[in-house]
Amino acid sequence: MSLDEPHLNLRNLNKSDYPQLKVLMDHVYNDIGGAWPEKTINRLIEDFPDGQIVIEDDDQIVAVVLSVLVDYAIFSDPHKYSDLIDRYERVKHKADGDALYGLDALIEPKYRGHRLGRRLYEARKELCRSLNLRAILAGGRIPGYHEYADQLKPTEYLDHVARKEIHDPILSFQLSNDFLVKRLMRGYLPEDDNSKGYATLLEWNNILYEPEDRVVNAKPTQVRVGAVQWQMREFESVESALQQVEYFVDALSDYQSDFAVFPELFNAPLMGLTEQTDPKAYIRFLATFTETFRTELLRMAVSYNINIIAGSMVELGDDEQLYNVAYLLRRDGTFERQAKLHITPQERRDWVIKGGNELNVFDTDAGRIGILICYDVEFPELGRLLADDDMDILFVPFWTDTKNGYLRVRHCAQARAVENECYVVTCGSVGNLPSIESLDIQYAQSAVFTPSDFAFPHDAVLNETTPNTEMIFFSDLDLSSLKVLRNEGSVTNLKDRRLDLFSLKRRRK
Fold it and tell me: What is the C-alpha to C-alpha distance for residues 224 and 462, in angstroms, rounded to an integer?
């Protein structure tokens, strides 16, 4: 055993380790009675071997954590250490408990400062996640309190430690490992003179916990998105256009995609079927095909077992106004709509398209999603409102003619992924149709953007297509990584907003 060249190994505690464990516990816990009896430790190992974890250096135990399972409902309220022990000095382990209880954590004094405690706590957290437990609970001693007991009330002492004005060897460590103090407990361990019998009720929440009654119906954490970088091409009929759409839906379904994504106004080439030359006339002509497309795409969603984000299409509203509308066509046979809210000067001038009034997050069997059509993604308020409504994936169907127009969409979409801690899927069209005004050139490079943190690609780009080439692409999105990021990331944008300085509210009609 050498502090200069340690050879550390993390493993579970064995019964044969008791002699070493006793020496360590007698040394560290000399002020509260020393080591547990051997029979108590053996029973812990028999009842819950995974919860007893040690770090050894060259076969010498230098750090230990001991744990049991308990009922969260009972031990998340005030209790005493004696509530965990029966009269035979056996620790009460509840095999079907839904929370991990931290009994002891001790480190050989010579090894303090080597972050062994953090290793052990990370192992505990991983155990909590793997067993699908609600939380880790612990009664935390405050051994530094006796030095301040004449000056501070226990609650005042906790405040000073939380503000790092006082260092407590146990509480400071617990706070640095993401534990929250739920309350102060009196008489937790009466013989603990240094803590004056007080302890904190500490809790670390498992953000990935799924209650047992929801596990069967739990939504997947891995979601596959397939998107079509669609080439604008001339079609002889509506049927030939739908045949091309179905070809791609079929292909995406073959790869078990949860979503098939198309670009903004992907059926616009059908404007070539009219002799009209007035932009207002041929855009209204295009709107006559929308109901047929929506009906057929919904059929495809059910038939091919895939949720379809139908880019957008021009819809004639009940008020006789035109709207640019994206459709979510679910594989269960239901559909939703999201109108474009911000209309570009060209859409407003040439086509007299009107902006919608509703912004929605949609539930699907593969996560909560939002849709912002092209220009809408350049308005950060919309993405933040969707994020506040627990959106996981933002879909951005777009249609841009030049590279600078495309880059506006790309850079804004990537910003939305970072600031709202979500995935953003962009999908555009390529090719050209010189015979149709406004369709003469296209520029697109579709992509999937992620937050920027360790669990994601180093450049926060999960996938991207070859520019200006018709193709399909796939990306697997890990929704559980988003959940961890939002609570334990290097930065936590959503949690750290200064809501005392600003707020964002919807205005509803």
Answer: 12
Which residue blocks in 143-210 are alpha helix, DSSP H?
154-162, 171-176
Domain boundary among 178, 197, 214: 214
Q: What is the pLDDT of residue 219?
A: 65
Same domain? 243 vs 383: yes
| Three-class DSSP labels, 392-446 | CEEEEECCCCCHHHHHHHHHHHHHHHHHHCCEEEEECEEECCCCCCCCCCCCCCC
The three-class DSSP label of residue 139 is strand
Q: pLDDT value at position 3?
A: 57
Q: Which residues does the annotation mark as catalytic? A: 264, 340, 374
166, 378, 461 from 345: Cα distances, Å: 60, 14, 30
| Pairwise CA distance, residues 64 & 252, whole Å | 51
Residue 454 DSSP label: T
Task: Tell me which H or E stretch contains 463.
Answer: strand 461-464
Whether 302 and 448 map to the same domain: the answer is: yes
Query: Does 203 lie in the same domain as 72?
Result: yes
Output phi, psi for 133, to 5 deg: -95, 150
Mean pLDDT for each consecutive 10-residue tract of the chain (509 residues)?
Answer: 70 94 90 85 94 92 94 92 84 93 90 85 93 94 94 94 93 91 92 92 91 61 94 91 95 95 93 81 91 95 94 92 96 94 92 94 95 97 95 97 94 97 96 74 94 93 95 95 88 90 80
Report the distance separating Cα 275 and Cα 277, nearest Å.
6
pLDDT of residue 4: 58
Indicate the number of domains in the chain: 2
Beta strands in 124-170 (DSSP E): 135-141
Is the residue at 409 inside a domain? Answer: yes
CATH of the domain at 160: 3.40.630.30
Distance CA 204, CA 320 (A): 55
Residues 195 and 239 both lie in one domain: no
Looking at the fold, whether 179 and 231 belong to one and the same domain comes out as no
Q: Residue 453 falls within a domain, yes or no?
A: yes
Q: Considering only CA atoms, which of 363, 359, 374, 485 is closest in space to residue 421?
A: 485
3 is written with which tokens?
């502090």
Q: How confident is the model at residue 136, as a pLDDT?
A: 96
Residues 182 and 42 in one domain: yes
Predicted pLDDT of residue 71: 94
Q: What is the pLDDT of residue 1?
A: 53
Predicted pLDDT of residue 216:
46
Residues contacting residue 244 through CB under 8 Å, at least 6 positions apart: 233, 235
Domain containing residue 313 = 222-480
With tokens 């995609």, the residue in question is 257
At residue 217, what is the residue type?
N
Q: What is the CATH number of the domain that holds 231?
A: 3.60.110.10
